[in-house]
Amino acid sequence: GWTQCGGHGPMTSAYGLGSDNVLEFQVVTADGELKIANAVANPDLFWALRGGCGGTFGIVTQATVRAFPSPKFTVTKFALNASTPEQLIEPMAYLHAQMPDLSDKGVQGYYVAFPKQFIGTFHTHMKRGIIGEPVLDWWTGKYRARNAHVRRHGPGESAAKGSQSMGKQPGDGRLLSKENLQSPKFAAALKEAMPSAPGKMMRGAMVGGGEVMKRSPTETSVHPSWRKTYVSIWSDKDVNAFIDLSPGMGAYINEASYNATNWQETFWGSNYAKLSEVKAKVDPDMLFFVSPGINAEMMTVNEKGAVCRAASVNKNSKYPPPSDNANVSG
User: What family is it from (predicted)?
Assistant: First the structure.
């Protein structure tokens, strides 16, 4: 899940994605053999496991990952409140436009937005004043009041608080670049993608940039657009407006709809073709099947609810094929 699909966290821009930091896998493949996969042994399998997602190429029994010293950083939490949903769009759009520059200065973080409230938790190696001044100066000049900084001692929190719905719910995600976030059309896209129903939210992860961008788009098998991404947004509503805003970008499969359109391009982009070749080589009989997943278009579910080979294969299927998992079918 986390490591094999990409993996982000509060220090991603400082150290890279989770998949960027795997040095070796031990994996049981469909032929029942335990294989070592690293840059020298089974390099294609190693590449595929770092972004092609779990449950696809084999059963990983062990992973060796790069370790880093425990960092010290500052945590800043703040909230924006508006009287109406429309009043929240302008300050949120402004904050998103600043995120690429803040990220380049070492800021990372997570946030949630409800129809009339934005709550963010951000981390940085740098001093509080350096990163916050542009946003706070704009905010002070634009609005009459804001919360004062509070120095907090003790352990911090890694993400903004927010309710978590259980079960099925509509929603989707999108990776966004600097060009997307600073587009004059961003505010309109944000308004369109923002849920309006009570209790629904939009979530964001400002975890790109930095080390994530320093890697080649083909070094691992995550969607190449990760190497241009500053923010991953996912909403309890469709994000078609963001999709239209960001041609060529993709979505993080762990934070997107299981029924995403153009799913191969959306989740893996130009890396899908090679992933398909590796999958066919290490698992020609499709023992490991997930949908959406690599070569999932070769499978279907019959009238008895069992997974079987599809009578015909549509390599460019718009939607992922059905699954026998009742939690994600439909």
Answer: Belongs to the oxygen-dependent FAD-linked oxidoreductase family.
